[in-house]
Amino acid sequence: MSDRMRQAAGWAVALIAVSVIVAGLLPTTAEADPDLREHQLAQRIACPWCHGQSLAESDSVVAQDLVVILREKIDEGWTDDEIYDFFASGYGDHVLLDPPLTGWGIALWSLPAVALAAGGWIIWKRVSI
After folding, report:
1. Spatial separation of the C-alpha atoms in residues 99 and 18, rounded to whole Å
2. What's the pTM?
3. 53-93 pLDDT per residue, tens
């Protein structure tokens, strides 16, 4: 394989990786379907009494009650951020399965980008040798 082919393959892999990461980070809106929105939000909020389970995954009565409250907030027209703030204010930030962009949350959200940049740099260095 020629150097030019290896370089093109490296850029293709990097482009695919960036596309997958960006597509995964883009928010999906479910404004038209309240059931879908409820399910998506319930997957991102942890059950405060069930270790390691989201509201959507948990079968506990508490989680089911919180999903009812979640649905009421959706029906009242609350935004996703208002709903997250409501649950975080009542149960703490640890109920948010997506860490907030403060403190360690910034580091957690930045880690994939840093890893991608480091991988791209390594690929670029190896291809240019």
Report:
1. 21
2. 0.56
3. 999 999 999 999 999 999 999 999 999 999 999 999 998 88
Comparing C-alpha atoms, which of 27, 59, 55 is closest to residue 42? 55
Domain of 116, in residue numbers: 1-30+102-129
Query: 97: closest CA among 53, 66, 64, 61?
Result: 53
**Shared domain check, 115 and 69:** no
Q: Is residue 40 located within the same domain as residue 76?
A: yes
Count Cβ neighbours within 10 Å for each residue of 14-37 and write b for 16 or more, e otherwise.
eeeeeeeeeeeeeeeebeeeeeeb
Instruction: Give yes or no for a contact between 11 and 110, defined as CB atoms under 8 angstroms apart.
Output: no
Closest CA to 41 of 77, 13, 11, 74: 74
Whose structure tokens read 């038209």? 32
> What CATH number is given to the structural domain containing 75?
1.10.8.640
